[in-house]
Amino acid sequence: MISSLNIFLYFFAYCASVHGQVVPAGSPSSRVIVHMDLDCFYAQVEMISNPELKGKPLGVQQKYLVVTCNYEARELGVKKLMNVRDAKEKCPQLVLVNGEDLTRYREMSYKVTELLEEFSPLVERLGFDENFVDLTEMVEKRLQQLHSDEISALTVSGHIYNNQSINQHDILHIRLLVGSQIAAEMREAMYNQLGLTGCAGVASNKLLAKLVSGVFKPNQQTVLLPESTQDLIHSLNHLKEMPGIGYKTTKRLEGLGISSVHDLQTFSSKILEKELGISVAQRIQKLSFGEDNSPVTPSGPPQSFSEEDSFKKCSSEVEAKSKIEELLASLLNRVCQDGRKPHTIRLIIRRHSSEKHCSRESRQCPIPSHIIQKLGTGNYDVMTPMVDILMKLFRNMVNVKMPFHLTLLSVCFCNLKALNTAKKGTIDYYLTPSLSTTSRSGKRSFKMKDTHMEDLSKDKETNWDFLPTGRIESTRTGESPLDTLSFFKEEDSDEFPLSSLPEE
């Protein structure tokens, strides 16, 4: 005979009484979302490839920057995005490895995603070193399999934010406890199978899971119980630390006198809607209260490939053409491996600026059909016409008759289409890993005026400018390029980043 306690728990697996309200199991507050963030990812991959590097202060170098470093180096004063010369002065024993070829990092990143998919099919990539996992269904199944005495004996795996006490009679608490145990299993599997460590945040939505995952680092995890949501939100020192509120929106909010989360929570909704538009105003005000109903969306195969290179100075057309040819050659190889055909090509530049917040400009156009047919066949006769197209886009942005100073060039193949209508399976697209960005403009000519001033997030850990409609990849300027649909839809047309700097 089923005990009354079992009947009670079974009922509350589908609805729970919280603050006097009945909360169905499918409601946002009952979800269990994990944000998985790998520790110093590039450095870990290098230490796995060369075990002799373990225990030594290690930095991964791209151009003249240390884009990431291990914790031994951090303890000696080395910071990410530090100039190589400054890093060596701070830590003379620092070992530097070249990290400009992202192939091994990309391959390891997709192995992590594949592993997480063994726990739940709902895995959303947020760059090389971050993933969201929706464990709601898995948690419900485990609860149904547990006996009443096992449920009452549940303990948290890892930390609880604010050291909050667990209420064993609150089904929302119970769900998050089970989620913490699954998160620990995922982290253990990552270490045992791939040799990687990482942090995890367990909460009821993506925003909160991301915010809480970095509270205890490295190689630890933290659970956020619902009652501590506002404490976590108010622990942010500035709005720029709120995921989903971009750089330019932050500036506009500051112009309204809004600089803190509390300011945004208490600001007039009507004035905010008038200044930013209804959808943006409502979205960011909900974020300020920790509300985020966005689903964990499986990322699927990338819709574009991009390669980019950063440098101190590019000031001649000949030099720009040479760099573009190098990037294009790499992209053509990736298209051959993937098997799909790109139908749009985009060129992105970044001009030298004294401002810390960098902007990018881009132009794109359709690829002529006769060239598309040759792409992916190993026929490098396409190099010359493709370079010609890219140089036309280049001259459309840069007046080559006048002095110019560029610090970045990026080439992107967008709008990838399969030769047939059959969809690739999960294993298929993971066998050809790459990152992506989707086409944003529908204009179809070289002379289109589609310059985007794309915001480059200075600090990925604290200031995420999410793409409104696509995926992005930064190949040579930092760790953890994004390649997934944003979980916060940034409505501002001027907030369209094409790159993200390292994970901190």
From TrEMBL:
According to the UniProt entry, its GO molecular function terms are:
damaged DNA binding; DNA-directed DNA polymerase activity; metal ion binding
| A cellular component term, taken from the record's GO annotations | nucleus
**What cofactor(s) does the depicted protein rely on?**
Mn(2+); Mg(2+)
Reaction(s) this enzyme catalyzes, per UniProt:
DNA(n) + a 2'-deoxyribonucleoside 5'-triphosphate = DNA(n+1) + diphosphate
Listed A to Z, the keywords are: DNA damage, DNA repair, DNA replication, DNA synthesis, DNA-binding, DNA-directed DNA polymerase, Magnesium, Manganese, Metal-binding, Mutator protein, Nucleotidyltransferase, Nucleus, Schiff base, Signal, Transferase, Ubl conjugation
What residue stretches are annotated with the UmuC domain?
33-246
Catalytic activity, EC: 2.7.7.7
Enumerate the InterPro entries for this protein.
DNA/RNA_pol_sf (IPR043502), DNA_pol_Y-fam_lit_finger_sf (IPR036775), DNA_pol_Y-fam_little_finger (IPR017961), IMS_HHH_1 (IPR053848), Rev_trsase/Diguanyl_cyclase (IPR043128), UmuC (IPR001126)
Q: What is its main location?
A: nucleus
What Gene Ontology terms for biological process does this UniProt record contain?
DNA repair; DNA replication; translesion synthesis
What protein family does this chain belong to?
Answer: Belongs to the DNA polymerase type-Y family.
The protein's name is DNA polymerase iota
State the organism of origin.
Answer: Rousettus aegyptiacus (Egyptian fruit bat)
Q: Output the lineage of the source organism.
A: Eukaryota, Metazoa, Chordata, Craniata, Vertebrata
